[in-house]
Amino acid sequence: MSGKRILLIVGGGIAAYKACELIRLIRKAGMAVRCVLTDGGSQFITPMTLAALSEQPVHTSLWDLKNEAEMGHIRLSREADLVVVCPATADLMAKMANGISDSLATTLLLATDKPVMAVPAMNVRMWQHAATQRNVQRLRDDGVIVLDPDQGAMACGEYGPGRLPEPEAIMRAILAQFDGGHAAAAPRADLPLAGRHVLVTAGPTHEPIDPVRYIANRSSGKQGYAIAGALAMLGARVTLVSGPVTLSTPVGVTRVDVESAREMAAAVDAALPADAAVMVAAVADWRTDSAAATKIKKTGDGVPPTLSLAENPDILATLCRSDKRPGLVIGFAAETNDVIAHAEAKRLRKGPDWIIANDVSGDVMGGDRNSVHIVTAAGVESWDDQPKDVVAMKIAERIAAALAS
Ligand code: C5P
To answer: Is 40 a domain residue?
Structure first.
């Protein structure tokens, strides 16, 4: 991954400020980034900002002869390994779809022989307009990677699809472009978690009742997967022990699929030793004490079968007591009331160093945002509601800092 070069074209939209955070993440992943700012983009951020963050000259005009003498626009369009347009406005995408080259940005996009990724951001009606959808389809048919915008409240006060995806999500899409993502697994000595092995559990467990039915907790796996991806981005070797979910494996992460709590416990044990463990999985507390070998049939007399339950092993508590306990163990707590008090009690009872507690009385489960409290021996830190990708990166950075100290 180190040494890959991104040409970042920053279009004109309020989301342009998020390109600054994207530059930070690209550089953190060991890649170089050179920026092109459109006239529209320069209404929102300055070339100086992009130059300072990228530590590279910023290009704005096709008619900048000095730059033409130093580096022609054809070379600029070919020197990168990937061209990223972020934010990609409706106007920029319309021009791209029609081969219009009336500015430095659009000329580079027409001249490049490298893969192009567009990250759209615009008002919901503009995104949904037939013309934009037609342009997006044409770009995809032409081989341009067009990310789907996020859904939510927009700067213009409307609600719906059109928000720029979070920089962490864009970064994962960028990483996935290189070498099928495998390059990210190559150890990078200068990354903060280089040389560290981190174990993550995520998703629900399924406890069979019979061959077609099971007991489970509600869990999409999104937060755990985002944490695994963020840890890998910071250079860790990550083993992700995952219950059944419909998510794709984050770039650079080794995934071990399990179904039940007992399988998860065995996979966790097999993955040790680790420098840190982040137990995000929503493990079912109980299983049937013996699953039926064949499908349980309705009797017809209206009397339901009786399920006899057995308690599952507590994977987190077992890990904390084990002589293979990682130096840093983090548990999660999903609570609907008295969140912090329950989390602190859980920390003392099960023995992790931190409990990351979230209030699941709203729509956290399956959603894309999370508001968490970090409960440690030193006290409680509460983070504002933010996207799960952002929570994940902040947790990964905190883990890196804790392991370094
Ligand atoms: O008790 P509760 O399920 O709320 O505890 C949550 C924490 O414990 C999470 O970190 C979860 O992954 C872990 N856990 C576990 N094994 C269980 C139950 C919970 O590892 N059987």
So the answer is: yes
Contacts with 131 (C-beta within 8 Å, 6 or more apart), sequence order: 90, 94
Q: Are 380 and 279 within one domain?
A: yes
Q: Which residues of 391-403 are buried (b: 16+ CB within 10 A; e: fewer)?
A: bbbbbbbbbbeeb
Residues in contact with ligand 1 by the CB-under-6-Å rule are 201, 261, 279, 281, 283, 285, 312, 314-316, 331-333, 346
For 24-83, how does the pLDDT look when each residue is reduced to its tens digit (9 = 90+)? 999 988 899 999 999 999 999 999 999 999 999 999 987 765 566 666 788 888 889 999
**Do 168 and 252 share a structural domain?**
no
Ligand 1 centroid from CA 167, angstroms: 30
By C-alpha distance, which of 239, 200, 219 is closest to 358?
219
CATH number reported for the structural domain that contains residue 382 in this entry: 3.40.50.10300
* Domain of residue 282, residue span: 197-404
Secondary structure element (H or E) that encloses residue 161, with its range:
strand 159-163
What's the CA-to-centroid distance between 157 and ligand 1, angstroms?
39
Rg from Cα positions in the chain = 24
User: Is residue 140, in this structure, part of any structural domain at all?
Assistant: yes
Are 156 and 9 in the same domain? yes
Options 20, 35, 86, 156, the catalytic residue? 156
Taking CA atoms only, the protein residue closest to ligand 1 atom 5 is 333
Query: Which range has the worst mean pLDDT, 158-162, 311-315, 362-366, 377-381?
Result: 362-366
Q: How far is the CA of 284 from the centre of ligand 1 (A)?
A: 8
> Is residue 191 assigned to a domain?
no
CA pair distance 285, 310, nearest whole angstrom: 9
- Residue 89 shares a structural domain with residue 224: no
The answer to whether residue 337 scores a pLDDT higher than 60 is yes
Instruction: Calculate mean pLDDT across residues 144-157.
Output: 86
Is 156 one of the catalytic residues?
Answer: yes
CA of 93 to the centre of ligand 1 (A): 46
- Ligand 1 atom closest to the Cα of residue 330 is 10
In-domain check, residue 322 = yes
- For residue 182, what pLDDT is reported? 47
Atom 6 of ligand 1, residue of closest alpha carbon: 333
